[in-house]
Each structure stands twice: as C-alpha cells, then as structure tokens.
Fold each of these.
Amino acid sequence: MKKVILLAAIVLAVVFVSNDSQAQTNRFGFMVDLASGDFDETGIGALGEFKVIEKGTISPQLIFYFPGNDITLFELNGNFNYYFYDQDIVEFYGLAGLNFTRVSWDDDNGNDGSETEMGLNLGAGINFDLGKKVAPFAELRFTIGEYDQFVLGLGLKIALNN
C-alpha cells in the first residue's frame, strides 16, 4: 500500500511541475469505475492527462476496488489517448495502454497471498468540455489479459493552470 501511495504522490508531483506550455491542456480527474468480467466490482480512482503531441495525451490511472473485507484489489493503467474529434464541447478519443492489476487476500484461517497480472487496454472515451476548467467524461475500456474486463468509467477532469 505504501508503494501505491508513493506512486500517486509522484504522479501528482509530475502534474504540478509540468512546463507552462503544456499546462493549459493537462488535466487531473476523479472517476468511478464499474467493472464486469473476471471480477464484478465498483471502484474509485484518480487520473492524469498530459499532452505529448497535438492530438495525443498520456493518461495514468489508479483505481481502487472494494471486493470485501479481506481482499484488496487495485489497478494501475498507463493509457495513450488519441483525440480524433474535437468540436464545440465534445471531444472523442480512442485509447490503448497497459494494465497492472494486483489482488491480495488474508482470510480468517491465516491464509494470505497475492496475484499480480498485466494486460492490454483498448477503448474509447468522450469528454464534455463545459468550460475552461471542468470536463465530465465517460470511458469504455476493455482489458485483455489474465483478468479480462469491460470497464465503464465516469468522472470529471479538471484543467490545470488554465
């Protein structure tokens, strides 16, 4: 858990020290994920979105799920979002990236363990740019790997330094 908190702190530090030329397009956000597949869970998470090319961003995500008292489940995603439509208040993007999922458990009998799996993400999303700062979004992602999942993410992205 300490590693996850450290990773989240590093992502936040990168967001705030990014240079001014990209600051208007960088975003930070929060999301609720509804996962269906090898595990059916609801999770909450945070994401960043950093412009790297004119129509492309890198989007790290950290999502925590709530499967039960003795189980810990989280995933870390590193996606590349390509914006192929950006008109008026609507932005459509396709995404591809890597998924890292970790499950750990500890039951009443003293049995504990963990599994860590990697996978590939493919999906699409839409942002509704309602103003200079706030953009509600929806994202549909399919993770291909040991844990095959369809995930619907809903949330808000907030522009930084804009």
Note: The two ends are 33 Å apart (CA to CA).
Amino acid sequence: GEKNDILSVEIRNGTAGKMSASSKTAIFVRATGEKTGSTYTQNLEADPVSVIEEAYKNSKYIQEEKPQKMNTSKQASAGSSQKSIEVETKEMEHVSIASMKAKAFAIEKEIRSISKDFSHVSVQISENFRTAGIVNSLGLDRNDTKGIVEAKVEIIHERGSHRSLELETSASALREITSDYFTEKINEWMKLPQNETALTGNRMKAVLDATVLCNILITAWQLFSGYHYCNHNTPLYGKMGMKVFSEKVTISDIPNLSGCGYGRVFDCEGSDCQKVEVIKNGVFNGLLHNLMTSAMLGTDTTGNAGRDVSLISDQTEVKVIPSNFQLCRGRYNKEDLFLELSDGIYIFESFDMFHSINVASGDFAIPCKGILYKDGRAVGMVNGITISGNLINLFASITKVANDNAAFSVVMSKSYQVMAPSVLVSELYVTGG
C-alpha cells in the first residue's frame, strides 16, 4: 500500500495563488496459485476477500508459467550490504500553510529582484508525506513514512524576446528549501545572448547543462535496468565489468541520499533498498534489480522493485525503477568547462524527455537550444537544433564533470528523481539551427 498526503501552495506574481490538499491511498494486491495475478484499488471499504480473489482470478491471464517470487521476513534483507532498517511508522504533521506561503513569497521576491522584465513569476511548494506498507502471508510486515518537500519555479521574461524557464528542487524538510539554486540558475540564464546566429558546423565540442543531462537520465537510466538486461534490450548487454564510458563518469542510484526528498528504505516487494554504482569510473559495474530480475541472473535484489515507470500511474505490474539516480558531480567549476570549450556549443535547454531516446539501442535525437562559442566567447543563440548519436558514445566522450547540480522528478507519478551536473564532451553531433 502507498498513501500520499499532499499539501501545496502557490505564489503567482506577488499574490497567493491556488492552495490544495489531497490524500490518496493505493492498495496493490498480488495473489499466487499456479501463477501470480494482481489487482489495484483505492476503495478502502472494499471487501478484502473479494479483492484478493480478483487478483487470484487475474493470474490466468498472465503469460508467465510460474508464480512470482515473494519475500519472507528473513529474505527481505538477505544479501543486503547494509543493515536492515526497521522504521516505526509515526504520525507526521504538515508544516503550517503560513510557513509554506512565507517561504514561497520569499523565494518569489528574490527572483523578482533579479530583473524588472519578468512578466510572470510563480513559486509552488508542496509537502508530501508518503507512507509505504507491505504485508504478505509469508511473514513480511514493513512500513515507513517519508517526507518530500518540492519547490518549483516558473518565470517568463519579455525583454527582447519571449522566453520561459522552469526549475525544481526537493528536500526532506521545508527548512532545507532555499532560493540559492533558483537564483543561481536564473542569473546564469539571464546572461545568455539573445541574438540569433547560424550553426557553423555539425561535429563540435560541447558543454551540456546539468538540466539537459537530467532530461537524458530520466529515460537513460533504463540502460541499467535488470529487466532490460535480461531481455537483451540494452546496448550494455554482455559488457559487465568492461569500460564503457569515460573514466570521469560515475553513476549511482542512492535510495537514502541526503539533501533531497526522494528515496526509500524498502521497495514494493519489501526488500532493502541499496546504493548501486551502475558505472564506476567508466566501468559497467552493476544493475538495478527486483526479485524477478535478480533471480534470472543468479544475484541478489538491489531493492529497486516499483511501479509508475512512465506517465501511466497506478500500474499493478512490478517493474524495476530507481530512487535517486544520479551522475555524480565532479571537481570542476562550471566556468572551467567554458574555458576549455573555445570553439563549440553550450546546450542549455532540451525538450521531449520521453520519446527521443531508444533504450534498446542507446540511440538518441533530442531537440535543443544552444549558445554558439567562438574563440571562447559566446556569439549568439542557435534555435531549432537537434543533438543526436548514441548514449554510449556520448558518455564516453565526457572529458570534464562540473560540481554543479540539477534535479528532475518523473512527471505525474513522482516515483523517482534524477540528478546530474554539467559536463564537457569532446564531440557532439548537432544539426539544424
């Protein structure tokens, strides 16, 4: 079961906007005979026996010829490299509406102080208490409640041309949300040249902004899914232990990462969530697993069982999902990347996060905006461009990793988050403009 108890406030252009409160509880049931069937309900008054019978009847429509594995209380933490954490569910109280509005007003005021030419500034802050619980007939019984605070900013700037920017961040408590991240990114965005120029080449050195890397990772994490690996639907199949990316690249899924709101103690199968370094210094080091995929490869689950891997929410099928999936930050200031760029392009905005990457092959074609650089100087903006290639080659061509950071949560289902810094790549194929 999962309950999301959400309180949200919005400040729009100096005045209080919409406020909302919602509570949604979803119950997912699996029942096993010769095979395992599942069902889902939000009706907490439904007859429990009828719900279980419905899941059992659904098993006859399942293609698998054997039942799904389920955890016992002892198996849930077996194979875990960390000590099992049992969390006592406690009542959590939302911060006051007044304190949320005060925080949103303060952030909105700081953003407005950056420029008088903003025609629109909105700040939305939400606090979600996410309670997860699991119980089964094999003796497993676990529960946990986690607080997730998210802040989103939208601005529209009208001087010279109409342009907009959206940013977000998360934390485990309201006090951890500040305006620093937003003002830094907005100040950087305001300095971008607005005069349009033409693309002068196709293969060039490039800086990819942290937000662009997040846009890629929100789909590209599936290259490291045990499910895709078992079905040979990843270009990394058969390359475990091999150097596949630049040695500058380390990519991890960290379920209890400090400084952000997302994460889990256990997954929807009751297994302990573990830190997984899927790439370590460029070497393909691991996969994200649930009980099914780990059994298929003769290894242990990493606690990455979940649902809601796409825009379709409330799925009953147990799949593999990350928690806090991140390309780890490097040691360079972002300015160091531009100093080395010289002649090239800065990709600062990208679109179409779900449909521009083929996970099975690694091929991508992503519509973007960029700033053209000549002799180390920004000379103008190029619109209507597309970056394309293969993710293996892209991550292999990273030569510097910055120490900045951006974060995106998956749209609608809010089931995981990706994080990334800005990077310098030795060659990027760019068309259009």
Note: The mean pLDDT is 91.
Amino acid sequence: MGLRIGFISDLHWPKVKNASDVLEEVLSIRPDVVVLTGDLAHKGAIKEKRFRFICEWLKRFEREEIPWLAVPGNHDVGDHPGNDRYSRETLRTGLKHWKRWIGCSYRMLDCGSIAIIGLNSSLFGSDTKKEARQWRWFEQTLDGLGDRELILALHYPLFVYDPENPDPDLYWSVDAESRDRIYRLTERLRLRAVLSGHIHRSFDHLWRGIRFIGGLSLEDSLDPVHPATGWQMVMVESDTILTQRFARPVHDE
C-alpha cells in the first residue's frame, strides 16, 4: 500500500484568498499525511500574530486525525545567509515565533516503511548553534532509520537548474555546501524524493533515482509558461511516485 502525501506550500497568509476552501478540499480528499513546505505566514518572522491562523489550520488536520509535518520558509523565520536579505536578528525572532506557534522547526514523521524528515533550510549556512544542532539531529535520525525509505521536505529547493552545480542566485535555493552535505549523508539510504517550495511553481526532476518535486504556491505563481496556484498530492508507491495537481489557472482568479 502506498503513501498519499498532501503537499502544500507557500500559503503566505493572509495574502491568499482561498485558504479555507483549500483546507476543506484537502480534508475532503483525506491524504494519509500532510506536508507543508514553508512560507505559511506572510512576513510571519516580524508579524507573529499571523501564525494564529496557521495554528488553527494545523489543528483541523489533528482533529481529522491526519498527521502533518511543517517546515518554515523565509517569510516564517527569515532568509538564509546566501542572499542579501539575511538578518541574524530576523532569523532569531522568526524561530522564536515558529517554536511558540508550530513547534520544532525540524522533525521526522514516521509513516511505517517511509520516514519523512523536514529540515529548516533557513538555518543552512548560518553558522549558528541552532544550525549545528539541526545537523547533529539529522545525522542521528538518519542513523536510526534502518531499512525505511526516506522523503525530505524543506522550503528552499536543493537546486533550481543543476543538481550538481551552484545556482547563480542563492535567493532561490540552498547553498552548495549544505546541499552537498545532504547528498553525502543520504547516499547510503533510499532517498525517494525531496519536496520543496519557495519558487512558486511546480517542477518534477529525476536525478540519480531521486525525485525532486517543487510545490505550487497557494498565493501566486512565478511560472511564466503555465501559471497556476494550488496544492499537490504525492503518491509514493513501491516502484514509482505519482503526482496530482489540484491547481487553478491564475487568470481564473
């Protein structure tokens, strides 16, 4: 039996206009788990009260007994140091808000034969004690996976253009050092997929047997060819991964 993941990203509350409708749609379809890859509260790192709505969203999943995992994005806790918007103070404040309303910014969801690990990609390259603790936790958690398959979830994609070479603009992706460290730590495991958000357009790349799946944004689209907003279902089977988009063309809004 496969695992059905409701994949939601870049809500940007309160900018999104149909948040309640999307929630009801996800609940009606009832995925096995829900994974949210960041930017849930627009400018939440400096406007803490916006997390109140996100907290209520997550409580609805709990009441319906649907497990969830959420990782923060740059709007939730601040940008990573790879771009000129980085602020150590914003990161510190944003992490405080996230912990108060959501919980730990990195954790694992045990789905039987599959483990979903969410990482806080805003910590990558920050050279902070919090980043070091996340790396230690990640390594220890990987050591305890046994023969379980692995899915990673993070806000910044590991790459936009090339999985082996740095992206020209680090606003859009993880820095090369952190990305390569993740590759090294997971190479002995069966890493099935990496789910990410941030770039406000869906993508689906295959590299070394790993699926890299980018999430639609619920708020707006940065896809110049097929602009759409929405969410996705990721269906993990024993021999394949299928995706289904629940999307709305931007011009229909």
Note: The chain has a mean pLDDT of 93.
Amino acid sequence: MAKGKRQNPIKGLFCGIVAGAVASAAMDQYWNLVGNIPGDRPEQKPKKGDNQQKDEPSTQIIADKVSKAVSGKEVPKKDKAAAGVGVHYLTGVTFGALFGIVAALRPRTGLFAGLFYGVLIWLFLDEMMLRALNIAPDPRKVPAEKHVEALGAHLVYGSATAIVAKLLLR
C-alpha cells in the first residue's frame, strides 16, 4: 500500500473487527495485571440499593436487558458470566469496526488516534452512558484509582485497536 492511500472501508470494517477482538483480549489482560477479574470490575457495579438493578457487572446487566427484549426472559444464571463476556467482546468488535473504517479512509490514523479513541470510549461509554442508564454506580462513590484503572484499560484497548487495524490494513 502506498503511504497515505485511502482504502476500501469494507476492508477497514473487517480489519477493525479483528482489531477490536484482539484489543478486547488485551483489555482483559490489563485487568488481570491490575488485579481485577475481567467482567467483574468494581467501577462497573450497579448502584447499591437500586431496586431495579442487580449487583452484577454492567456487561451482565446489558446481556439480561437484550435477552429480555428478544426472548422475554433474562439470561439463565449459569450463562450470565459467558453472556457478560459476550457483551464485552461484542462492544469491543463494534468499536473496533468503527475505528477500522476510519483508519481505511484516513490512512494517517495511527497510535495517537487510537489512544484518543480509547479515552473517548472511556469517557462517553464507561463514565457517562453506563451511569446515565443506571447500570454503573455514581462516579463520586467510586475511588479515583478505579477511574484511573478504567482509563488505563481503555488506553490499552484504543492503542491495541489502532496497532492491529493498521497492521491488517497494510
């Protein structure tokens, strides 16, 4: 590929899907390194005392909501952990696909853009959207180091997405 040449966005989509899956796995490894269990991070727990939510990771709550909308039933208890992991990876490949499309159309999109993308996902999805949907706790009740850990996870995700997408787009 010639430097700076735009590519087919469909190729970018598929490269981004792979990149998002790899980046989601890298994010899980980050959580293992900081001592948390993937899919059960304290900053994503629902608010205590909220009668409408359960004390489960946000990914499992989202899986329940989707399952209920599709089948009318929540995810069976024995399948909740797997469903939560599925939501995590589906989210990762979706955001990876979006990055891949942009990287195909804007060839100079690189590591800095990936880091910025990770920050945006952390800010808007993790810090704002989950709280707005009453799935995660009030950010003021979460210790500052947990916010920093979550930001670190999303920086890992964004950088891994950018690196893998750019390698695949070569």
Note: The mean pLDDT is 87.
